[in-house]
Design goal:
heterodimer, A: alpha+beta, Penicillin-binding protein 2a (Domain 2), Beta-lactamase, five-stranded mixed sheet, 21 strands, B: mainly alpha, three-stranded antiparallel sheet, 15 helices, 3 strands, globular
Chain lengths: 568, 359
């Protein structure tokens, strides 16, 4: 009887064992299987080579060159401290730095951990030879992003850097991960999703101490796609050099397609170096002045006033205003730059000689509202929509704005100032070049862009301007350069006929004026339009006009596909 | 004479011996896997111990178990002496002093203690027929108490605790009144919180970790968590012999000794586990069957004692690898690596056959 009880007890216990097994292996089985995988399988990502950035003639603007990096494989190293000491002697860099890099980059015992990058070839060979003495130290070839044009393309190409927290949280769902390199500025940034490719990975089986046992799976990385720009590297480099030490921006654009041929901003920086040191530089080298800088346009705005006057019928080609050097409105007196007076002026002459008084009168007839309307139509006060990030809108003032913000009513003097591109008005160099493009191409507001596109660029707008009016303005701009009294005579070239408009805008009390020169070439059948802007660069007819002439001549000589641009 | 010999062996329990043999063979396969791909040292040694065990087994089945029980007090003196010598001369491993060197071999007296104390108890109880005497019962407890304390001192909590169910089952089958037994159990349960103060720190830790393995996932809880992962991830059919990742990649601690069942669970799955536990169940059922067939209290008690000894170890060991019982150092009979354990189990098997034969 008591034996039977014993029998039953054992039966119950064994039933308990069986149900425990069932619970663990069947009910919880999949969960434990997953935990087992996580235990023993590690993922190691392999970065994809980044796509190359080419200019319009397939010249490399950003590429990957080989550099050498020194790595330590933690599971193979015998004595970490003595190994690091040895390396610090060979590489001539502090041991503490190597140690810090090691700790920062450590992933897993089997994963090579970078302790020093950009090691010279000589050191790399030396370490390779000493390999037997230093177990676990390896030299690997690393792709290094290189920008052969350095400063010249800094703002266009941009640079790459390690992903930061806010970028990571925004882009995590697009497959970005910690320590990824990501484009920070320029094309590197705007085309990052194309350039970066797809990183591959290795599934590695590890033991209980995390050491690699074997590779289970290998997914090869997919190289990023190459990106082709509309920019001409030779022209870009030429203009960058022509700008020299001056601060400012220069843009060359195809007036028919909106393709940016060159976009330079100075001062610049070398994207091959770390940008950390120049982040707070007072010259703001990181700022792309071509589309982030907002300045009063000065006399180059007269193109718009003239266009608005003719289009709206406020003035005709025959309208004359007499300039005797100044215009008095109430008690205020507004000077022309030529205090002796230009005499009787029509629109053509007024643009060629940049007569202020003519445009004071034209502006007063037009009124601020009409000026605002035409400025908006021609893309002022809003972004052009170029792909590059950080573009500014500029500003076109209105009566209502002044009442609200300045708490003053709009005076006739405000209209007068606006008519010569002064006062509250702010524009970006990119907006100016687009205005000129509309004159050059016969009335189309193009969409500026730097990425090569198939077919016509979208975003261009036909403005339905009267061809006769455009012809008048073109003729006037030709006069600026060609005529004896033209303000842009220094842009006159024996190589190619250039049309343009100077601008000398007040930068504020006590500061040198900003110098503008914008135009197109060849005058008869424009193929390129441009703006050269120099911050506090003096008179618009001076240095900026000369730079424009040199650059246009360079472009003209090299513009044909047959003429090869040599790689610097 | 020969005829008589053969007639004598006709009662040899083939099912019992066969199931034990099968368990051992399966165990050897697990052992190969748990030490793979290192040398087969452990396997060869285990096999050698088995052969020695077979000799002892054959030797014992030819002796009438009554003679062995008759000298139970000698076994008792021997084991107490050995346990004392362990505490004095013993070698330390893993923070416990459980082994004593005899020549080139390390012996674990507490393993033998389980069986020898069972024999002693059987001797004592068969010589006393006053089932209702509380004195006799307490005396039985006292007999156990001396080696119990010595083993506890090593410390080897698992083996020491093993003795308690053996006493109770023996007293129960012997015929002690149920109310006495329940009373003692009641007192034990009441006073058990006091025992907390006598436990070593690592033993307390093990108990706490059993309650919640996640309190110390890298320390004491690690073994349990990894073992559960191993068994759980085995699923229905397992990952295949020599293919368990938990096992082969070293995540399982103690996997050739106390945690060998985790290897079985991972590589052989539910199917393998059911076969193994099934064989154990047959073995224990068979031992109790022998107790039923035994025609004297001596044989019945001895068989029951051995069945309990083996059965409790199986249940506790398997439950502990699955995380359903605290980790106490108990080997899985016939499977875990260890000479002392294997020899004791072979002796126990021999005694069972002796009971079956010498009716």
């Amino acid at each position: 009887m008591r034996l039977k009880v014993l029998n039953i007890s054992f039966a119950v216990f064994f039933a308990f064992l069986v149900s425990c097994l069932y619970y663990l292996q069947i009910i919880k089985g999949p969960a434990y299987k997953e935990m087992g995988h996580r235990n023993s399988i590690r993922l190691l990502s392999i970065n994809a080579p980044r796509g190359i950035i080419y200019d319009r003639r397939n010249i490399k603007i950003a590429e990957n060159i080989l550099s050498f990096g020194v790595f330590i494989v933690p599971q193979e190293v015998v004595e970490l401290d003595s190994t690091l000491k040895r390396l610090s002697e060979i590489l001539d860099c502090p041991e503490s730095l190597l140690k810090r890099n090691y700790n920062r980059n450590y992933q897993a015992p089997f994963a090579p951990c970078e302790v020093k990058r950009n090691v010279s070839k000589k050191d790399a060979i030396l370490i390779e030879e000493l390999r037997l003495d230093m177990r676990g130290v390896i030299v690997k070839e690393l792709p290094l992003r290189s920008y052969p044009y350095a400063h010249a393309f800094a703002h266009l190409a941009g640079y790459i850097g390690e992903i930061n927290k806010s970028e990571l949280s925004a882009l995590r769902s697009y497959g970005y991960a910690m320590k990824d390199l990501i484009g920070k500025e320029g094309v590197e940034r705007l085309a990052d999703n194309v350039l970066r490719g797809k990183s591959g990975g290795m599934q590695i089986q590890v033991d209980n101490r995390g050491r690699q046992v074997k590779v289970l799976n290998l997914k090869r990385p997919v190289k990023g796609e190459d990106v082709y720009l509309t920019v001409d590297a030779g022209l870009q480099d030429f203009i960058w050099k022509a700008m020299g030490e001056k601060r400012g921006a220069a843009i060359f654009m195809d007036p028919h397609t909106g393709e940016i041929l060159s976009l330079v901003s100075t001062p610049s920086y070398d994207p091959n170096e770390s940008v950390a040191s120049i982040l707070y530089d007072s010259d703001a080298p990181l700022m792309n002045r071509a589309l982030m800088g907002q300045y009063p346009p000065g006399s180059v705005f007269k193109i718009l006033i003239g266009l608005a006057g003719l289009e709206s019928g406020s003035i005709t080609p025959q309208t004359n205003f007499v300039c005797n050097g100044r215009l008095a409105i109430g008690k205020a007196v507004f000077n022309c730059w030529n205090l002796d007076g230009h005499g009787a002026m029509d629109i053509r002459q007024a643009i060629a000689e940049s007569c202020n008084v003519f445009f004071y009168n034209a502006g007063l007839i037009l009124k601020a509202e009409k000026i605002y309307e035409y400025a908006r139509r021609l893309g002022f006060g809003k972004k052009t929509g170029i792909e590059l990030s950080g573009e500014k809108e500029g500003f076109v003032p209105t009566r209502a704005w002044k009442r609200m913000q300045v708490r003053e009513r709009w005076f006739a003097g405000d209209t007068v100032n606006l008519s010569i591109g002064q006062g509250y008005l702010l524009v970006t160099p990119l907006q100016i070049v687009r205005l000129v493009a509309a004159i050059a191409n016969g009335g189309e507001l193009v969409q500026p862009h730097v990425l090569k596109r198939k077919g016509r660029a979208s975003g261009s707008v036909r403005l339905r301007l009267d061809a006769k009016n455009i012809e008048i303005l073109r003729d006037a701009m030709k006069g600026v350069v060609e005529e004896e009294d033209g303000t842009g005579a220094r842009a006159r070239s024996s190589v190619v006929s250039i049309s343009g408009k100077t601008g000398t805008s007040q930068a504020g009390p006590g500061l040198d004026t900003h110098a503008w020169f914008t135009g197109f070439a060849p005058s008869e059948d424009p193929e390129v339009c441009f703006v050269i802007f120099l911050e506090h660069g003096g008179s618009g007819g001076d240095v900026s006009a000369m730079i424009a002439r040199k650059a246009v001549e360079y472009w003209y000589r090299n513009r044909r596909p047959s003429s090869v641009v040599r790689h610097p | 004479m020969l005829k008589l010999e053969l007639k004598k062996y006709k009662d040899f329990d083939w099912v019992l011996a066969g199931s034990a043999m099968a368990v051992f063979c399966l165990g050897l396969l697990f052992l190969v896997s748990s030490t793979y791909p290192n040398k087969l040292d452990f396997v060869m040694r285990q096999a050698a111990w088995f052969l020695l065990g077979c000799l002892i087994f054959i030797f014992i089945i030819n002796i009438n178990y009554r003679k062995i029980v008759g000298v139970g007090n000698i076994f008792y003196s021997l084991i107490v002496a050995l346990l004392v010598s362990v505490l004095i001369f013993g070698s330390r491993r893993f923070g416990a002093q459980r082994w004593v060197s005899i020549g080139a071999f390390n012996m674990q007296p507490s393993e033998f203690g389980k069986l020898f104390i069972t024999i002693t108890l059987v001797q004592y109880l068969t010589s006393h027929k006053d089932y209702r005497s509380l004195k006799t019962m307490l005396m039985a407890f006292l007999i156990v108490m001396v080696p119990f304390v010595l083993i506890l001192k090593e410390p080897d909590l698992g083996t020491a605790l093993m003795l308690i169910p053996i006493v109770f089952v023996l007293l129960y089958i012997w015929g002690a009144p149920l109310r006495y037994l329940l009373g003692i159990i009641f007192c034990g349960v009441i006073s058990s919180p006091l025992a907390w103060f006598f436990l070593k720190d690592y033993q307390k830790e093990r108990l706490l970790v059993f309650m919640d393995p996640s309190i110390d996932p890298l320390g004491a809880g690690y073994t349990i968590i990894q073992s559960k992962i191993a068994i759980g991830s085995g699923g229905v059919l397992g990952k295949g012999w020599l293919s368990g990742t938990q096992n082969q990649l070293n995540f399982l601690a103690e996997r050739h000794t106390d945690f060998i069942f985790s290897v079985a669970g991972e590589e052989w799955g539910l199917a393998g586990c059911l076969i193994l536990t099934g064989l154990f169940y047959i073995l224990i059922r068979r031992a109790i069957f022998i107790a039923e067939k035994a025609n004297d209290p001596c044989g019945r008690l001895l068989a029951v004692g051995i069945a309990t000894m083996v059965g409790i170890q199986v249940i506790v060991n398997i439950s502990m690898t699955m995380g359903f019982m605290p980790v106490v150092g108990l080997p899985l009979p016939f499977v875990s690596y260890g000479g002392s354990s294997l020899l004791v189990n072979m002796m126990a098997l021999g005694l069972l056959e002796s009971i079956a034969i010498h009716r």
